[in-house]
Each structure stands twice: as structure tokens, then as C-alpha cells.
Amino acid sequence: MPAATPARGVWLHATDAALTGALRVLARQLAERPDAPPTWVTGDAAAPGPGEDLRAIDAAFDRFPTRLLVLAGPALPAALMDRARARNIALMLVEAVPPGARGGWRLFGAQPRGQLGRFQQIHARDEAAATALRRQVRDAVPVLPTGRLARFAPVPGCNIQELDAMRQSIGARPVWLAHDLPEAEADAAFLAHSHALRRAHRLLMIAQPRDPAGGATLASRAAEVGFVCARRSADEEIDETTQVYVADAGDDPGLFLRLAPVTFLGGSLTAGAPIPSPVIPAALGSALVFGPHAEGDEGRFMDQLRTQGGGRQINGPSDLGPAVSALLSPEAGADAALRAWSLATDGSEATLAVADAICDWLTLNGGRG
């Protein structure tokens, strides 16, 4: 029996490495669809594209049979587009902006109208870009003001039954979360809780240890400093007297992040310590408190949070209590949580719309095979 012909898929290619992450989020969105098409993402150092070498381009198309090539970035790769056309591969352009747009985008070469006419669809970054691009293509290609693609993947769900049970146990009490708390920062978190209790006497602290095996030690320390404590791994319930709940059963952290309108990012008070992703609590609508220590993508996101008012950066342990207290205020906390959520989920609707457009195009043009 002859080997089955591999399904032809969708190649997502960024001509700007900074957009590769957005295309990976789009690929994840496509992968969740029924009858999901095979996808391939290129454009950064981890997965570079074939460049302008025709043999490398042909080898790439041979390695990944492609029905639709989706491009994003500041330049149109002419050689790649030419070889796609020769192989009867359709083209789609996303996050498109017109020539001369601010930010240094160099989208077009010498003949922009001819290049643009090769696309089946163009998804512009905003309405102004769409209007300018429509003038370029003169209705030859559909141009949609889809928007900027999401840079962060959607937050996974959690166990709804567990979430409802926890909400019933907590009731109307105010809550804050010490998320992914290392042992070295436990005392700072407990001191902050003591400070915050002066303002909110029924306040519950959920302490989620970085290492669940350290739950017993964390609970003992909470009792030492005078708190009434319950441990999840010991099946101890939250009641009206519980002041600290140690979440040490290895649950999905999203369960507790959904319960807490204020979250402290553990590790951010310690130089060189790892920190959890700030994107997930922000996307779940929690206002964030974090220390001065973060690097890489987490540090960049936290800088954006700070400048946009989606969280509070503190200088040291003594600042944690006042920051938590301030964000527990309904007005301040709600505003910060909304700003954090907006930053973390920016572009999610555009990514969903592009995923829909890709799947619709595949279905209308001969199915997914």
C-alpha cells in the first residue's frame, strides 16, 4: 500500500523576529480547532526561515507541504512569495500597515500594488492602516481592519467544581494571593498580611508555596507568627477564623489566581530568583504586586504593567503590606486589575478572527487536506 500523502498545512512566517511569538499564539489557537490544520511557524533564531535562497525555499516547501502561507512583518519576502505562487500556494498577510507607518515598518518594495495583489486576504493592524491599504489594492484584495495579534496565549481553564467550592468556603471575604512563594520570602509575605489585616480584618491570605513539599513548614511558620492556618494538602477547610490558607496540594495555580483580586509574584523580591509568569494572573483579572527583580520577558511585561498602572512595583519587603492594602481598595484594585487584564489579553480578538479566517479559507478552498 502506498504511503499516505501528508496533509497540506499552514505556514506562518514572520519577517520580523519580534512577531514570531504572536504567530505561535495563532498556531496554538489553530491547533485547538476541530480538524486543525498542520501548522509551522518560522521567523526567529529558534526557527529561522529559508531566506532568499531559492533552493532553501523549495526544500522548505518540500519538507512542509503548504496550502496557505501567512506572512507577518516589515518586509515582503519576494523570493518566498514567488516560489509559493509557482507551487499554487495561497498567501495571506496579517498585522499589515501601509508604507511609511510609524515604527520603522518597511512593508513594501518597489511595486507595492503588484505585491499586494498576490494575497487572498490582508488583515490590517487598525482601521487607518486598512483604509490606506485599500487605496493601494483598489478593491482587488479584501482588506480587513482585524487588529494587532495577541502576544500572549489564552489562559487555560481550571476545575470549575473546585473553583465553586473554594468560592463558597471563602464567601464574601477579601482575599490576596502570595503566588509561587519561595521560602525566603515567606516572612515578608506574613508581615504584609499583618499590615493588611489592620485595614481589612476578615482578610484571607492564600499562600501558594513554590515547592508544595514545603507546605508544612510554611504552615508552621504562619502559626508561629500568630495566624490561624489551614492546609489544603491536609484537607483542612477554610472557615471564618482562617487567616492563612496554605495551597500546597499541587493544584493548577489558576484556581487560586481566579479567587484573588490582588496577587504578589513570589521571587520578585530576591535577586536572581525565578518568578512565575505575570501574564496569567493579569489575564485572570488580578492586580499585581511585584518586587524589583525580574528579567527577560517577565521583566518587560512587568515594566509595562508598572507604566500602565496594572500593578505596583515595590522596592523591598517592607513595602509589600502597604501595596497589598492599597490594591485591596475596590476602586484602586479594580482599576489596576482592568489595566492588567487589558495588557495581557490585548489582541486576543484579532488572533481569534485571523484563526477563523484561515479555517474558513481552508474549508472554502477544498477542505483541510
Question: Can you walk through the features of this model?
Answer:
With 369 residues, the chain is α/β, with parallel strands linked by helices. The chain folds into two domains: 161 residues, Glycogen Phosphorylase B (Rossmann fold, 3-Layer(aba) Sandwich); 186 residues, Rossmann fold (3-Layer(aba) Sandwich). Helix content is 39%, strand content 16%. It is built from 14 helices and 13 strands. Strands 9-10-8-7-11-12-13 form a seven-stranded parallel beta sheet. The longest helix has 17 residues. The chain is elongated. The protein starts with 8 loop residues before the first strand and ends in a 5-residue tail after the last helix. The N terminus is likely disordered.
Q: Major sheet: size, sense and barrel closure? A: 7 strands, parallel
Q: Assign a percent range to the helix content.
A: 25-40%
Mean pLDDT: 91
Class from helix and strand fractions:
alpha/beta
Per the CATH scheme, the topology name of the largest domain is: Rossmann fold
- DSSP strand tally: 13
* Count of domains: 2
**In the CATH classification, which architecture of the largest domain applies?**
3-Layer(aba) Sandwich
Keywords: Cell membrane, Lipopolysaccharide biosynthesis, Membrane, Transferase
InterPro entries: Kdotransferase
Family: Belongs to the glycosyltransferase group 1 family.
Protein name: 3-deoxy-D-manno-octulosonic acid transferase
